[in-house]
């Protein structure tokens, strides 16, 4: 579905960004990209999304949909002058056609009662749910998420993670999630890439073969977390 | 059952109360705004009635009101107000149009800004009244030189606000458009224009203010009709009540157009998350 071959994008005389990264992602797979700050994981997502065109290497995105890429940013990035409904329809190529399906998406993200509200009246979680609906309505082949829930409180975060799982299950969307939250990656992802160094390189790849939905307190996931912390060269928490 | 009915009645009264409170708040705000002008008018009138001030130099509000009514009854008032309003309107539209076109291009294209902005800023540094003799030489003492002067006055605030509005648009919102492969035109129409609307409306309001300022200058420099012309007539015929009457008419007209734009602003920007829109 998504193939990246020896992609490189660096700034500041090669000190920031990422270097020589290759991987491929199957359809319907959820991949997490973990790394300490400054390792180029957000840059990688910007390159994948096409926002940053100055990279070397090759990126192939399979799929024939009207919209190959959907992106969810760290902030909701809603247009403040549009209502929730209009925001969700913002990127739709054929707004009339989507009018029929919008109710379905409003229900999916639980905002049916708020479709006429402006973003100023929404909570952080509701705004991010609107952004999720906006990204989904174009039925993208690959959904890219850049630290999507890092600005939200713990409970909202868990709710939205479950929402993503539901979406993934229903639509088999291929997802790439950049995050610095190890628990989030372990909860959502089939595979986790660890990026490290400056510029960042792909340091390790872990498969998480546990059926979803997973138990957040699973001991296998806890062991994986320790492994990831080791890989990230972060010392284990003192108990 | 009875409990239910009671509750409903409770809600009803609550609803009524909130409407009343809203209305009361508005009336109170209006009354508060009119308080000081009213006191000033009373003090002014009394000062003249008690001969503290010389009525020939400083006519009483009632005298001025009489003058305005007299002009209205003669039928000349509407002609004066109308032509002045018309000049401001045409000048405002022309200045705004030029500012929108130039400001959008300068705001959007970096190279065009580098090309045009220094020149425009240099023109801005010229006190606009300095154009008066030149416009009269070029276009005579007709309508075109007046409208031109007003347009120049309106142009700069609108232009500056459009440019800064466009340049201040959040890059993050533009990126959303890029994700959807918007064309540059779509990005301008669907993201940049609405996002810079608040700034544009601020520009329009200061533009209208300057328009009223410049129409006075334009009509002072030679006109046979208009509120500015009444100022000159008042000066030449030694009738301060005529001068103050036209000043008051200017104030009313300026306030009216500004209120109009302010209402438009509030309507267009009800999505804004600011103090104004707080419940």
Brief overview, please?
The complex is a heterodimer of chains A (239) and B (279). Chain A is α/β, with parallel strands linked by helices and 239 residues long.
Please tell me about this protein's structure.
The complex is a heterodimer of chains A (239) and B (279). With 239 residues, chain A is an alpha/beta fold. Helices cover 33% and strands 25% of the residues of chain A. Chain A has helices at 41-49, 84-88, 95-108, 124-137, 154-171, 182-188, 219-231, and strands spanning 2-11, 16-25, 30-35, 56-61, 69-72, 142-146, 174-179, 191-196, 201-207. In chain A, the strands form two sheets. Chain A has a six-stranded mixed beta sheet, sandwiched between helices. In chain A, strands 2-1-4 form a three-stranded antiparallel beta sheet, with helices on one face. In chain A, a hairpin with a 4-residue loop joins strand 8 and strand 9 (201-207). Chain A is globular. Chain A starts with a strand and ends in an 8-residue tail after the last helix. By secondary structure, chain B is an all-alpha fold. In chain B, 82% of the residues lie in helices and 0% in strands. Chain B has ten helices and no strands. In chain B, helix 8 (184-220) packs antiparallel against helix 10 (240-268). Chain B starts with a helix and ends in an 11-residue tail after the last helix. The model of chain B is unreliable at 1-16 (pLDDT under 50). The chains are: A alpha/beta (239), B mainly alpha (279). At the A-B interface, strand 5 of A face helix 7 and helix 8 of B.
């Amino acid at each position: 579905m998504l193939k990246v071959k020896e992609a490189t994008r660096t700034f500041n005389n090669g000190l920031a960004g990422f270097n020589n990264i290759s991987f491929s992602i199957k359809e319907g797979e959820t991949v997490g990209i973990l790394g300490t700050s400054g390792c180029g994981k957000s840059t990688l997502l910007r390159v994948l999304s096409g926002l940053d065109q100055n990279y070397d290497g090759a990126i192939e995105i399979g799929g024939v949909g009207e919209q190959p890429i959907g992106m969810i940013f760290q902030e909701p990035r809603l247009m403040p002058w549009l209502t929730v409904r209009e925001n969700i329809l913002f990127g739709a190529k054929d707004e009339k056609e989507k009018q029929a399906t919008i109710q379905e998406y409003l229900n999916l993200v639980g905002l049916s009662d708020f479709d006429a509200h402006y973003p100023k009246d929404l909570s952080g979680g509701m705004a991010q749910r609107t952004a999720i609906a906006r990204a989904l309505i174009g039925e993208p082949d690959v959904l890219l998420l850049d630290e999507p829930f890092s600005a939200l409180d713990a409970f909202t975060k868990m709710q939205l993670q479950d929402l993503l799982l539901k979406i993934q299950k229903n639509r088999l969307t291929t997802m790439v999630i950049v995050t610095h939250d190890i628990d989030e990656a372990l909860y959502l992802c089939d595979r986790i890439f660890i990026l490290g160094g400056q510029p960042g390189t792909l340091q390790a790849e872990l498969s998480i073969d546990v059926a979803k939905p997973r138990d957040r307190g699973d001991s296998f996931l806890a062991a994986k977390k320790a492994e990831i912390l080791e890989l990230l060269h972060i010392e284990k928490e003192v108990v | 059952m009875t409990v239910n009915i009671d509750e409903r009645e409770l809600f009803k009264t609550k609803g009524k109360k909130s409407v009343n409170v809203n209305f009361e708040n508005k009336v109170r705000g209006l009354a508060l705004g009119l308080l000081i002008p009213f006191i000033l008018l009373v003090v002014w009138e009394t000062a003249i009635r008690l001969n503290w001030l010389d009525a020939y130099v400083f006519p009483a509000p009632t005298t001025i009101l009489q003058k305005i009514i007299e002009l209205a009854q003669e039928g000349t008032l509407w002609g004066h107000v109308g032509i002045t309003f018309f000049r401001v309107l045409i000048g405002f539209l022309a200045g705004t149009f030029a500012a929108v076109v130039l400001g959008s291009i300068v705001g959007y294209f970096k190279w065009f800004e580098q090309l045009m902005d220094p020149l425009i800023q240099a023109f801005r540094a010229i006190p606009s009244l300095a154009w008066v003799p030149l416009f009269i030489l070029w276009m005579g003492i007709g309508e075109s030189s007046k409208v031109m002067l007003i347009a120049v006055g309106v142009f700069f605030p609108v232009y500056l606000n459009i440019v800064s509005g466009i340049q201040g648009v959040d890059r993050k919102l533009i990126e959303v458009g890029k994700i959807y492969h918007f064309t540059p035109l779509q990005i301008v129409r669907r993201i940049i224009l609405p996002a810079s609307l608040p700034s544009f409306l601020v520009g329009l309001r200061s533009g209208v203010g300057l328009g009223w300022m410049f129409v006075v200058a334009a009509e002072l420099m030679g006109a046979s009709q208009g509120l500015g012309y009444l100022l000159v007539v008042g000066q030449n015929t030694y009738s301060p009540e005529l001068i103050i009457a036209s000043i008051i008419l200017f104030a009313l007209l300026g306030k009216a157009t500004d209120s109009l734009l302010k209402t438009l602003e509030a309507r267009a920007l009800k999505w804004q998350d600011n103090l104004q829109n707080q419940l």
